[in-house]
Amino acid sequence: MNLEIKEGAGDRLLLILMYASIAVFALICLFPFVTVLSSSLTTETSIQAYGFQLFPKAFSLEAYQLLLKNDTIYKSYGVTIFITVVGTILAMLVTCAMAYPLSLRSLKYRNHIAFYVFFTMLFHGGLVSSYILITKYLGMTDSIWVLILPSLLNPFNMFLMRNFFKSIDESLAESAKMDGANEIYIMFRIMIPISLPAMAAVGLFYALAFWNKWFEAMLYIRNEDLFPLQYLIKRILDSADFSRELAQNINLTEYTTPTLTTRLAATIVTIGPIIFLYPFLQKYFVKGLLIGAVKG
């Protein structure tokens, strides 16, 4: 009897220690974000004098005013939301449409096709060939689709989905075929609903990639109405850096452009929507990773 009581107390103590460790780890992870948020709400001179603080000594919205006074930033938000939503949906359709057939043993030459996809992970045609293809032959310059179509298939994400489809019991598909279902019906009505945890994880990977696009916009977009958020903020920060260097060159010591606080504010503006998205996908994301780890 005493042994059982000791074991129960030990288990409770271990549980308390685990929760305490997780809480401390969560606070450590949260500390940089809170510091960035706090430092973005202060003045440039305050950071230079006191460094980064958890609580701003001199509250100021100057950095956010500099970012948000430009009306084009709201258009850029719309462009980024559009390419993230539409791009993620299309990318998941293309990825599943390729991953599911490659998971079937009955598909002829599936290993050869998989190797062709894997080959693109090791070797790339290069920036020059991609630029010539997109601008000269596809003619997608100054088109919002240039930010979506070239990124519809990521080989790594495709192999993740293929391995997940392979881990599903084949008897489900076989029983559906006996009832007269074709492969398209099986994929959309059976496999995809079962694979929601894996799709949430892969979809989050795609969403992050589309949300953070800026390099393609720098190469192919000249119309400011089509600038995604990340690229527009990069241009704003470059302008702030240029203004600061110009002020230093002409010895305007009393004039200080908020370049550091602007960078911190830009970080909050760009990652804010993604942070709010995580809680809704967390359970699916964690479950997808755990299932993939267990089933390989």
TrEMBL record:
Swiss-Prot/TrEMBL GO biological process terms: transmembrane transport
InterPro entries the record matches: MetI-like, MetI-like_sf
CDD domains: TM_PBP2
Gene Ontology cellular component list: plasma membrane
Compartments where located: Cell membrane
Membrane topology recorded in Swiss-Prot or TrEMBL: Multi-pass membrane protein
Membrane-spanning ranges: 12-34, 77-101, 113-132, 144-165, 186-211, 264-281
Residue span(s) of domain ABC transmembrane type-1: 77-281
Keywords, sorted A to Z: Cell membrane, Membrane, Transmembrane, Transmembrane helix, Transport
Family classification: Belongs to the binding-protein-dependent transport system permease family.
Protein name: Carbohydrate ABC transporter permease
Organism this protein belongs to: Paenibacillus sedimenti
